[in-house]
Amino acid sequence: PPMGILNNSSQLSSLPLQILFYVNGIYYIFYFLATLAMIIYKSQVFSYPDDFLAPDLAVLFLMAILEVPRLYLGCKGNLREEEAPLGLSLGLTVGSVVLSLYLLAWQTYVLRADVVLNALLLSAYGLEAGLKVTAIAAFVS
Fold first, then answer.
1. Which of 1, 74, 114, 129 stands 20 to 30 A from 68 (CA)?
2. Is residue 3 part of a domain?
3. 90 lies in which domain range?
């Protein structure tokens, strides 16, 4: 019977990774809006040098632009059990981590809320990267 075929096939895609992509997508929208609001707030409340406002905003928007293919390639690679898109997503995650570290450590003004938002984001990126490496290893073997 056809049921026997299903029982013999092994599913390699990672459910925890897929859930994490979904949660990260939702969290990133919150992160982006909160960080943007804080940059606007800081530019009003503190003496924000004009030549420092643009790089901080540029990093945030570049990060948002990276987030779309990062999550898309990750989801696609995981569900199709293909290591190439998952590997590309992992590479984009490294880029996102660097940009998040910029907003955590080198942004013109860093508020406690920035530290909390970025710590959560970096934790999620770390967990996601670990699960991606594990999934890639499963797909390759």
1. 114
2. no
3. 15-140
